Amino acid sequence: MATLSDFNGYQPTWCPGCGDWGIGIALKMALVQLNYSPDNVVVVFGIGCSGNMNDFLNAYAIHSLHGRAIPNAIGVKIANHRLKTIAVVGDGDCYGEGTNHLIHAIRGNHDITVIVHHNSVYGLTTGQVAPTAPKGMKSKSTPSGIIDQPLNPLTLSLTQGATFIGQGFAGDTPHLIELLKKGLQHEGFSLINILQPCVTFNKINTYQYYRERGYRLPKDYDPSNYHLALKKSLELDDGKYPLGVIYQVKKPTFTNQLTQLKERPLVENEERRKEIFFQLLNTFK
Amino acid sequence: MATLSDFNGYQPTWCPGCGDWGIGIALKMALVQLNYSPDNVVVVFGIGCSGNMNDFLNAYAIHSLHGRAIPNAIGVKIANHRLKTIAVVGDGDCYGEGTNHLIHAIRGNHDITVIVHHNSVYGLTTGQVAPTAPKGMKSKSTPSGIIDQPLNPLTLSLTQGATFIGQGFAGDTPHLIELLKKGLQHEGFSLINILQPCVTFNKINTYQYYRERGYRLPKDYDPSNYHLALKKSLELDDGKYPLGVIYQVKKPTFTNQLTQLKERPLVENEERRKEIFFQLLNTFK
Amino acid sequence: MMTFTWKIGGEAGFGINAAGSIFSKFVARSGYYAFDYIEYPSLIRGGHNALEVVIADEEIGTLREKIDFLVCLNAETYQKHSVRLHEKSLILYDQAEFQPNGTGIKITLPFKTILSDLGGDLVMKNTVALGASVALLGGEIKILLEILKEQFAKKGERVIQFNQKFAQAGYEYILNHYPTLIHRILTYKKNNNKVVISGNDAFSLGVVLADCRFYSAYPMTPSSSVLHTLASWQEKIGMVVRHAEDEISVINHAIGSSFAGVRSAVGTSGGGFALMVESVSFAGIAEIPLVIFLAQRPGPATGMPTWTEQGDLLFAIFAGHGEFPKIVLAPSDHLEMLRLAAEAFNLADIYQTPVIVLSDMFLSESHRTIDEEKIRKLAHQYQIDRGKLIKNLERTEKIKPFLRYQITEDGISPCLLPGTDGFFYQANSYEHLEDSHTTEEALERKKQVEKRNRKIQTYLKNHFQTPKVYGNLEHASMVFVSWGSNKEAILAAIRDLEEKNNLKTALIHFSYLYPLDKNVLLSLFDKNKQYLLVENNSLSQFGNLLSMTLGIEIERKILRYDGRPITSYFIIDELKKNGDIK
Amino acid sequence: MMTFTWKIGGEAGFGINAAGSIFSKFVARSGYYAFDYIEYPSLIRGGHNALEVVIADEEIGTLREKIDFLVCLNAETYQKHSVRLHEKSLILYDQAEFQPNGTGIKITLPFKTILSDLGGDLVMKNTVALGASVALLGGEIKILLEILKEQFAKKGERVIQFNQKFAQAGYEYILNHYPTLIHRILTYKKNNNKVVISGNDAFSLGVVLADCRFYSAYPMTPSSSVLHTLASWQEKIGMVVRHAEDEISVINHAIGSSFAGVRSAVGTSGGGFALMVESVSFAGIAEIPLVIFLAQRPGPATGMPTWTEQGDLLFAIFAGHGEFPKIVLAPSDHLEMLRLAAEAFNLADIYQTPVIVLSDMFLSESHRTIDEEKIRKLAHQYQIDRGKLIKNLERTEKIKPFLRYQITEDGISPCLLPGTDGFFYQANSYEHLEDSHTTEEALERKKQVEKRNRKIQTYLKNHFQTPKVYGNLEHASMVFVSWGSNKEAILAAIRDLEEKNNLKTALIHFSYLYPLDKNVLLSLFDKNKQYLLVENNSLSQFGNLLSMTLGIEIERKILRYDGRPITSYFIIDELKKNGDIK
Ligand SMILES: Cc1ncc(C[n+]2csc(CCOP(=O)(O)OP(=O)(O)O)c2C)c(N)n1
Ligand SMILES: Cc1ncc(C[n+]2csc(CCOP(=O)(O)OP(=O)(O)O)c2C)c(N)n1
Ligand code: SF4
Ligand code: SF4
Ligand SMILES: [Mg+2]
Ligand SMILES: [Mg+2]
Question: For the complex shown, is ipTM > 0.95?
């Protein structure tokens, strides 16, 4: 049984008050409470302030390239589907550079949990707008305000078939821990979009902003109701932020549909190599 | 006034009976009927059987890389927003290699028309599955049937803010010509998803298949009704294919929101270069 | 050596490729050796497809100048290829379609009528032509019928018989109408075990031999058939084959699965490889083993998808930002493709870095008959070497970081299998300390750069293979220098030059292209010989690599960059043009 | 030449960068020259930031070994940089935080108490330190207050006065407590017009001078400030600046706008450039003008984002699959960056191909004081040359194809502005005929390859610039050979070696890196001299390029690859280690 300190790497270098602190702690707590330990979980980090968690959380890990954490995570899962596999990414990372990989990972229902730091800016490159930035938001790369309207990650993932969509708030860690645990326990693709105030560069989407507009989904909310989930996801477009498991449905995971992996993980497949080689060679006669 | 023959390039090399023939003719007819001619329209072609229209349709054109037609088209429009700019792409091209560019082009409401040959296969590379292939479809790269479920281009573009979404059928060219004209006349981003049977490699989505499941939207259909459009778009997931303008709403185009382009296209901007240069140099004193 | 070139041409979509591979198999099962090469446009229908099969009584891996038997399924085939006919060449055609006007023995066969009589459609012309060819070359029809049975096995008995019927019809038509023209080219010889494989098949077999269990790719000519072949084998051999959404996803799938301990490879062509290079650099600093199959085609950009060129060499060698070691191999023929494909996985594991296996359309899509024994021997010799991969390690009570990037003398650090109890570490795309945490410290950075670079010396010492020398360097007046798939064409030119022009030449042929060991190679080039660079590109990229590494410049160059492969007769024409020979 | 190094250090997020640029401006407006360089971690908060400003009475572009005045906003600054202090160095610190234990003149200033007394928070320490520095160096406080006014103009009067108050407080504290330590370093001299610009600012000004009207980029250190600067100017200068969703979209935006006739550029670093290389090949075959600003940082992969290296040279030179011409420039200093940025747009238009302008973090983010007159002269000389771009052409009655890829003697075809009445053509990523339709024909392919390759000879004949030679090649016992941003450090080493070690050395410095003209360059290297390669990378990539092109190998190398820039004192240490000098 691992402890919190087992998971603690370097002291975080995030700005004081940044939402990343809350996400970092919540993820470690969730992992401890689910009996994971640094040696039986693989975390793939993107590049950004979010991705800098690579040095603060101990695990078998990949500190990937900007936007590429998801395909790395899929590759890990296919090679060893016994390992819990998580991607920790930024919104520029996952909804900008790597939007392609998010959508096609959803199509395959790959059994990975994607945790997105939704702060509407590129924090680490000093604050340019991210694809989730509200239209008109000013930043160093958009001094007159961004012309593009924001991408909606919830409707994007729901309509393309994600089997678990959750939204959390970095300022409400107890709720976030429970949400992360549900996502981590979900078999199949799980997206957890975490509203994360960037206190240094995003003066619009502050803790205050989210406290005024975020609300926990009611106890009786049925996350398996697609049309209700669609309604909830569309609220993001009007600046309303439902918190909790927005949608969840059970579908076979990618690796569960691979007959090759029935008995054991790919990495443990026993070798009948030469025998198979000569059989295949015969087909060229 | 250009004629059809002005637009005719090489004799097409598409397989006899391929839906591309219908799309090629319909596009030329639509351009002629809207008084365009090869010298005042820019068409950017992707790579695929679809993209091979580059040699069959005369226009100022770019035969782009696989998946990159949309950003090329945006660049053309920003440089000279007086030129009608069209992207002719395949579903592997636009919903696979280039999904990123589609989504972020939608966010900017760039005034380009994207015409997608939706044939659920990679035709030109001899028939592998495309991202729109129905789950379980067998192909050379998925002999036991594709595990991934198909992407839904209609809900994808609607939920991310496309201001014009139309769906046509290559087997119904009269209807397709009218649909293309509406898309071409739309100011802002227009997506026209054309159901295009690939007679050589796709034995599921045949003309017959689409005739049985496609239906023209009723005369009184209101394309400005978002929730109705969402309902219609979701029908794709159940193998029902509404034909016509599914959604249309008026929003300022990207180039219309650029004050720099108020008076004239970027390519015609008069040069106060040296004068401006010295003004800017002063700011470094 | 006896050689006989049979060539079949027609419109794309008329089964030229299928006919070619059936004929190649027929030649092998009749006890002979064959080499076949197809030229086809980037179209699904229309355009001209032509496939030639060189029959020989010894192993052959190159094309010959003359066509001995031209099968014309349309007039265009005759127009395009009659220039290579000689007076004794056989020309099979249908006079209802056109009348050949040049040299050669005209053999008209009423394809259309035969087909309509027996209720077959035009696309069956190739099967009739196969039957006729077997007859004209004195082959055994039952071998052809047997192959057709296997070919259409999946399509059921009715389709099998339907095809056999047309083969039989072609065969009998010749026996009845041209008994005097029967040649004794393919009279059955006891068939010692031979296989017919393409370069792509050889790579696929190498993947299996090396126990690679993850292959990801995005379709791109001429690499696609590896994806198709491995996809069809995956369940049987217990590997996973993944057609991902784009090439960046493809290589990052493989980086993830390789990190998790599974031997992994990706396949693509130049344009797809270009999308992968940021991640090649990632595998370089994170020190993750990766095999990349790069099947070249003429660029730049989309270029000429179905033709051949060696135009991506320097791009592949210097691919990826920043400095990190990589290994680039270029197999010279089908057998070496199989050997080096399997070897590449050992090198990738040993050096924990990307290994690029270069092919091109000519090697990838040509088929060669190889004695099965040679492949069995190679397979038995091959031993898997996973380098410093550790699968279990004694843990301490408290979980602790594993020194994934430990500074070592040979530059290679032990690598613990992720998931091993009691440890953790990260594969880091940032510069890092030995324990894999991120660093920006000057000394730590310097240590890691020097450690990664030491892998190059270790490779040159332990695994670099010097080029093979063919012919006698001392006596040769001219020495060809080349790499990859040009070898067989040059060896054929060497034989022809000796026989017809009494000119002694030799060949220095490279398959291990990068990094190169300067000291070992200099001695090869210090002879005051006339060296002649042969490359299938326009900028003599390997010549530039040699001058970069050895500081020597080879002035004389034979370069081809029109999308067609280097052949012995192309080389000989160039020597004639330059006055080296009459 | 008088030089005085002022260095300020503290935690990231405490305005070290802002203080540095204010101080640099102060030096320029006081009538002196400055060169500043910042070292900071890839963090927003925490970690150590340190910026040094070298003050001189002549133009200066390099760092000096000793620190004359160290401003410590925290104890870590003293620990990290005290090694470069000498006995007369001034050390400004707050004894409430730490007590410096080494050599130098300690000047304690109660930052904390001053700030709390006047109601300022800790992040204002840098403004107090600026005031104190102005006092200690005998500068005019009103110049500093004026700069602060402009700096916070957008933030309103209250913030301006707030900052001025703390500058004044620091200034007065020194006058009251350390009247005897006032130095006469920055006494006001009549300020002839000077500007303070970074390498990135110089590139941005070059973009404006060349009338480039489209710039697209994706944020990536150290290229991002060009995106920010041009974005802030776009409305004023009538250009469009586009932050696109990824680097592949960035370069394809620019290809589209350049095709439509607008001069276009993209900016990135090594990792982003790696994502662009498939499209670089596309611009190569479609012959579309494109300027690519590549600001290098230590790789591989994410590497060390905020440090400096010259590690992407060969990757950039051979970037892109297949063979096509490209031009690679590497400005040697801030003024040449402005000149070559503008020149790059002419070269891109003339040769209708990609032109890569190489920078690195050192050149991109350092600021240099330059006489405004030099820049005005350069701007007046610059003429826009759009090569063979045709804006109007007489049409015939019927619309007809324009021969976009016409075979020409110099390899460059006329290019009609798309939208021109009466014509059409396509920019084609496939191989193509002269009328731009796709082709797979052998002869047409050969003609187009040779046409594209002829551009290289035309460039070498008309626009290639030979390297600049500094010092006297004949008399020099040692000749440095280098490229890009190392120039000023080497020139400073040459001066020091002559003054202190009486050693005559010279420098051959390249800014036009690729392609290189062998014939012109060979004469430079045939002197039996001791040549010494100086590069900010570990594999001497330019050395390899020289041996590839000229077949000469430079044995002696001074290489730095720890993320820090080449400096004169690094070079001199290496010569000492090697026994060249005592
Ligand atoms: C290919 C590439 N392009 C650009 C960058 C530079 N870069 C580093 S972090 C970052 C954005 C970070 O934003 P986000 O993903 O939202 O993470 P955050 O910092 O906001 O947590 C960028 C663009 C990179 N590392 N790689
Ligand atoms: C980067 C890259 N990867 C792969 C290819 C090979 N390729 C050519 S066409 C094609 C797919 C075509 O499918 P689609 O876009 O659906 O067009 P269709 O042929 O079906 O009309 C592919 C993968 C390429 N040209 N470039
Ligand atoms: S810049 Fe923003 S996202 Fe990054 S650490 Fe600081 S507050 Fe957090
Ligand atoms: S392969 Fe399919 S999509 Fe391509 S031309 Fe033939 S029928 Fe049309
Ligand atoms: Mg972010
Ligand atoms: Mg398709």
Answer: yes
